[in-house]
């Protein structure tokens, strides 16, 4: 058995290139993928900086990476869904087929989920990665590998918009124009929304929202006068048009509050962002406006397939998210660069390779 190079988080703030055994295809329904591109996600940075996210604590060296694409190089005897040579986006979380949640149709909520680069499960920043055939999704060869890697966050946006029930002519408010907010807005547009307002504090990202991610309106909430609330500024920008859907993509308490206050009676608020464990919310508005608040976690059946379709049909331009690329041999530098919070014009960094 030969070795491969992996990008390993040894402990917080300590990444190393280490050797790992190349995994074998041992199950007839598994495939081996040569990794071609991997996006860096906010959760990777949390593990790198803090060594934990909530209950997930890095206690032993862990291979990083969960937003990856690649080429199928080997298939098990029973595989029918992909072939050697296919380009694929890897769905990084594999649930147990025995859990109640999986059987109830919510495999994303399976308590036995094994999710790449979430301790103790190793991630995809390696040369070869094995996965069940139904967790690699074939993408057309016309889609670049770096774009295919970002089908992972796009699937989150597909899931969020399905939960929101976004439909033709809706007015959708997106709180936060980070990578997740941007893809949420563009998916809302492709689901039929006609008015899409983004709120953020970063002009670079708001301009990207306008150029490539469906924004009809943008609002920099940092620039408001001290006597103007974010919800009032939103309502005035939209001439009091009713907001059907809010997709909260910051996890920041002021954004949750403003989003709930801006949402029209009967509307749906989807909690995509993850922030503090508890915050206060305007309860009377929720009850008297019959607001629907929905949690949202990763993606479930059909979401990856729909995300691939959106990219294949040219409805989402994932390349416009990418503000930096690094070679695999510079992967550690790519993570170190994420720690520099002074960089304003950063959305998504993608690691290309291994060469
Ligand atoms: N539910 C899920 O399955 C899921 C999956 C991936 C990410 N997330 C969460 O979604 C959120 C967004 O992810 P991301 O990768 O785009 O994160 P990000 O940090 O890159 O983007 C967040 C954006 O919100 C903006 N923002 C923060 N505070 C603000 C404020 N007070 N007012 C206005 N704008 C503000 C920031 O400027 C930034 O552009 C994060 O909380 C992340 O943890 C959830
Ligand atoms: Zn991610």
- CATH homology group of the largest domain: Medium-chain alcohol dehydrogenases, catalytic domain
Number of helices: 11
- The total beta strand count reads 20
Mean pLDDT across every amino acid position: 97
The third-level CATH topology of the largest domain is: Quinone Oxidoreductase, Chain A, domain 1
CATH C-level of the largest domain: Alpha Beta
What is the CA-CA span between the terminal residues? 20 Å
Q: How much β-strand is present in the residues? A: 25-35%
Contiguous low-pLDDT stretches (5 residues minimum) are: none
Instruction: Report the C-alpha radius of gyration, rounded.
Output: 20 Å
Report helical residue fraction.
25-40%
Bound molecules: nicotinamide-adenine-dinucleotide, zinc ion
Q: Mind summarizing the main beta sheet?
A: 7 strands, mixed
Structural class: alpha/beta
Count of domains: 2
Query: Which of globular, elongated, flat, extended, rod-shaped describes the shape?
Result: globular
Provide the CATH architecture of the largest domain.
Answer: Alpha-Beta Complex
């Amino acid at each position: 058995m030969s070795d491969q190079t992996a990008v390993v988080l040894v402990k917080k703030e300590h990444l190393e290139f280490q050797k790992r055994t190349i995994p074998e295809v041992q199950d007839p329904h598994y495939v081996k993928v040569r990794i071609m591109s991997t996006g860096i996600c906010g959760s990777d940075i949390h593990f790198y900086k803090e060594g934990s996210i909530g209950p997930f604590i890095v206690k032993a060296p862990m291979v990083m990476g969960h937003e990856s694409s690649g080429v199928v190089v080997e298939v098990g005897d029973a595989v029918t869904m992909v072939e050697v040579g296919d380009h694929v986006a890897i769905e990084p979380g594999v649930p147990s087929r025995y859990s109640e949640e999986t059987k109830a149709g919510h495999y994303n909520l399976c308590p036995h989920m094994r999710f790449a680069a979430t301790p103790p499960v190793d991630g995809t920043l390696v040369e070869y990665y094995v996965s069940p055939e139904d967790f690699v999704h074939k993408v057309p060869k016309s889609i670049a590998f770096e774009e295919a890697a970002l089908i992972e966050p796009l699937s989150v946006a597909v899931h969020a918009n399905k939960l929101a029930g976004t439909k033709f002519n809706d007015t959708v408010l997106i709180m936060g124009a980070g990578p997740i907010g941007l893809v949420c807005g563009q998916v809302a547009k492709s689901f039929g929304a006609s008015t899409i307002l983004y709120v953020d504090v970063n002009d670079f990202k708001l301009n990207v929202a306008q150029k490539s991610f469906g924004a009809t309106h943008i609002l920099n909430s940092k620039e408001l006068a001290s006597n103007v609330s974010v919800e009032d500024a939103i309502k005035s920008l939209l001439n009091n048009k009713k907001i059907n859907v809010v997709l909260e993509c910051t996890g920041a308490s002021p954004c949750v509050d403003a989003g709930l206050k801006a949402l029209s009676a009967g509307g749906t608020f989807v909690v995509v962002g993850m922030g503090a464990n508890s915050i206060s919310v305007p309860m009377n508005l929720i009850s008297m406006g019959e607001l629907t608040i929905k949690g949202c976690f990763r993606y479930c059946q059909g979401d990856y397939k729909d995300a691939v379709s959106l990219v294949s049909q040219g409805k989402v331009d994932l390349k416009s998210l990418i503000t930096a690329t690094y070679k695999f041999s510079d992967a550690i530098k790519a993570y170190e660069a994420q720690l520099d919070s002074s960089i304003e014009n950063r959305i998504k960094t993608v690691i290309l390779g291994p060469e």
